[in-house]
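Justification of computing resources. Each target in the renewal requires a structure prediction run like the one illustrated here; the chain below, 414 residues long, is used simply to show the kind of job we budget for.
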Amino acid sequence: MARKKSYRGSKRAADCFSRRQFLVRSAAGIAGASMSTLGFPWGDLAYGQQLKGKPVKFNVAVRPDWTQGWFGVVNEEKQIWKKYLPEGSEVTFSHPIQGGIVTNELIANKTSIGHNGDAPGLIATFQRERADIRAIGLIGSSPSGYHCYQILARTDAPEFKDSKEAMRWFDGKVVATPKGSCSDRFFQDVFKREGIKPKEYLNQPIGVITTNLRAKKIDGAATWDPQGAAVSTIAGEGIARIVATGQAWGERDSGTIVARKDFIDQNPEVVKAWLKAEIETQIWYYDPRNHAETLRIAAKYVPGFADKALWFSLAGLIPEPYFGGPIRDEKLFVWNDEVRALQKRVIDYLAEEKVIPSNQLLPGAIDDSLARQAMKEMNVSSPLTRIKAVPIEKGFPLLNDTKRIEEYANLFKI
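Resulting structure tokens:
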């Protein structure tokens, strides 16, 4: 992986967005063009509502290996949770590198609350013979799968006219992904839709995928950011091209906040207070004025990544011909119809693959009632915030220039 560099970058001529790149193609997207956090502009998030009562102690599993979940380590570093939990409470953090490990920690009662991807989060709710785990909120949801549906092709692959042509190139090729991940679910689903049959479909962790792309032992892979950004020709090591997200198939990604049901039952007000801390943190780390600090925090937990790659994984636009979509991420926090539709596709797929026993969720598997209460008490609405995808040549050079911070922030106006 590339060594870390300064946050400063050289200025380059900025290309204009195409009309397509500016287009937000749904009424929901247009409605969210303004901040949804009623009365609380970026940079003024003094929500703290500390819960009274006995101090509590528990562990939370967060995902610094996954850009959509970086707010977890921001909460850890800035200790925003202390504004909400009873005075004297202690929260420890673990940092699993895959959703299945989060589930294992919950099952073993090593952690009480965790961050998970769309497929692992739903799989976790089917483990009731071992532990009753519920999905209680959303980490984020990219309308075009920027964060979890990132398809890479080795750099000596042909130049393709679009993402669908790139996917067809994988027919008869060797590809890899971490099995059981949201990336795996998407990769296999698109192959099935497009009638593509790889020669080999390998189960490899993201570090091994990087090594094998570098050595040209595999032809392509599905992974998530920041790993995709770090190996990319756009912002990283240059050993692979990002050739697709979910944009070409209208596929949204999503991440879930999961928790043990016994912990929720014993501590409902504590869980709600924790969710308030997550709300504030989700809004804070997407404020463009906080991006430089967010990346400094992320770099502590994902060492070895170039700053340019970290920035790109947070806010960068994947340009034509593999256009990634105009919105990088939405912090919905609670379920809406689009996420429910995604969930249904995920559940159907997992049942067909015999990963779960049924395509019907267990009763109460999804329960965002505490999240909705937390939002109401904080006077915020869904989506909490959206982040626009910005061309790297426009955004990255301004990242650490404090004199031009407002110019930088204005790039993200929707």
